[in-house]
Structure formats: C-alpha cells, structure tokens
Specification:
This protein is an alpha/beta fold. The chain has one domain: Rossmann fold (3-Layer(aba) Sandwich). It is 37% helix and 22% strand. Strands 1, 2, 3, 4, 5, 6, 7, 8 and 9 form a nine-stranded mixed sheet that branches.
Length: 260
C-alpha cells in the first residue's frame, strides 16, 4: 500500500511539473537583477527562487499576490518580474501596523499594489477571481500558531481572490508526519498533511509538490524550533558554526489549484 501511495504521489508531481508554463528567462533575469542585495543573493542557495517560481508556474504577465512579504526577499524578485505586463500585489493581515510596513516596503516598486486580508470574514480587498497566483513563503506556521479560524479563514480568502484554474503556492518548514503534532504549535514546523488539509478544506485541489527546498540535514528538533537555524540563529553564538553548516530549514513546496 505504501509503495502504491508513493507511486501515485510521484505521478501527480510529474504531471504538475510537466504542466507548468515555463518562462525561465524572465524568472532568471529577475533573480539575477542587480538591484537585489548581496545578502539576499546569498540566500538563493537555500530558497532556490528560480526553481520554486518555475514550479508554481509564475509568469511575468500574471497578477501575482504575495501574502505577508515581510522584509521583501521575494518581493524584490516578484515585483520587478510582473512590472511590465503583469501586476504584483503585496497582501498582509488588516491592521495599521502591518499595512504601514507593507506601504513602506512597496515604495521601492512603483506600480505594485497593496491589499489587506481579514481571516474572520475570509475576505480581502483583492477582488474575487482576479489573481492568477497567490504565493506564501514560510507563513502558514504563523497562521496555525495564531489559533482559532486564522488559518482556515486565510486560505478561504486566498481561494476567493484566485481565478478558476489559479495557483496557490506554499513553501513552509516541514515537520515529518511521524512527529508529534503538538510541535506545530511552537516549533515553526508543519506537517505536509496539515497544509494539504487546510487547502482542500478551502476548496483547493492538491496539484503536486517539489523537493527543491528540502534540506535532509535538518533534523526538525532544535532547542528554539526552526529559529535555531539560520537566518535567525536564536541561540546566538552557541553552536553557531554547527547551525550555519546545516543551513536553512527543511521546507516543503506545495502547489494547489482552484478548480475551474
């Protein structure tokens, strides 16, 4: 049975990859653009932006929504990529502080849009059915840890803003299925099954996964959770060389589609 399930998963993954509208030159040019800082470029070895965005099928003529851009690591790639023929929208939780931080981030990207999401109503001010792609990088664990309906409401809002056939791309810290689920509430790691359950409950179809952001050196059990590893290095100088050698976390890269 296990072999059969694995085989089906591999078939699904192969189909998803084969179906991608590849646009490698545009993505590679955005990643290689000189405006990206040297510090950002050093993290490419862990985040694999070219391969990740290709897997999600991102194209420069799309409306791309990035949920919770944070410091703007992916924004520096996605906003210029979509600036010619598409549209980039940064999306945050509604609230004065988060929306002000997003506005400051987007000052560097004329033409980029800003939007806010309310998980209590599963809504946002991104028009329903307007987005081609919604991307979230290392954010779902925060939604889970927030408790209540935060995660489910957010995923339902993602579903609403996407066009039929649109893609939800999720990258997050991976917790093995054999681990205690309680770790999801404090470690920053999530089980693959947890994310798939969230997305399918919102109406999405699971369309495949990639191992491009996996890190087999990550044991998933650290004193300060995922924040023990770089870039946070929560323990400071304690075992710093060890954690730097491991690198950034083991990450799952999951693709979902809103059915037509």
């Amino acid at each position: 049975m296990r072999a059969r399930i694995l085989g089906l998963a591999l078939v699904a993954m192969s189909s998803a990859v084969a179906a991608q509208p590849a646009d490698s030159p545009a993505i590679r040019a955005a990643v290689a653009d000189a405006h990206r800082s040297e510090a950002a470029r050093k993290r490419d070895q862990y985040r694999h932006p070219v391969e990740t965005l290709e897997f999600f099928g991102v194209r420069p003529d799309q409306t791309v929504v990035e949920y919770n851009p944070g410091g703007g690591w992916y924004t520096a790639i996605l906003a210029p990529l979509a600036s010619g023929h598409g549209h980039y929208i940064g999306l945050v939780m509604h609230g004065e502080k988060a929306q002000a931080a997003l506005a400051r981030l987007l000052e560097a990207y004329p033409g980029a849009g800003a939007a806010a999401l309310d998980p209590t109503t599963a809504s946002s001010n991104v028009p329903d059915g307007s987005a081609d792609v919604v991307l979230t990088f290392r954010n779902v664990h925060n939604l889970i840890m927030a408790g209540g309906d935060t995660a489910s409401g957010t995923f339902k809002a993602f579903y609403r803003m996407l066009k039929p056939g649109g893609v939800l791309g999720v990258v997050d810290h991976h917790l093995p299925e054999s681990a205690d689920s309680a770790a999801e509430q404090k470690s920053g790691y999530l089980k693959r099954s947890t994310v798939i359950a969230l997305a399918t409950a919102a109406g999405f179809r699971f369309a495949g996964e990639s191992s491009v952001n996996a890190n087999p050196a990550d044991t998933h059990a650290w004193p300060e959770g995922v924040w023990t590893l770089p870039p946070t290095l929560q323990l400071g100088d304690t075992d710093r060389a060890k954690y730097l050698a491991i690198g950034e976390s083991d990450r799952m890269t999951l693709k979902f589609v809103k059915p037509n």
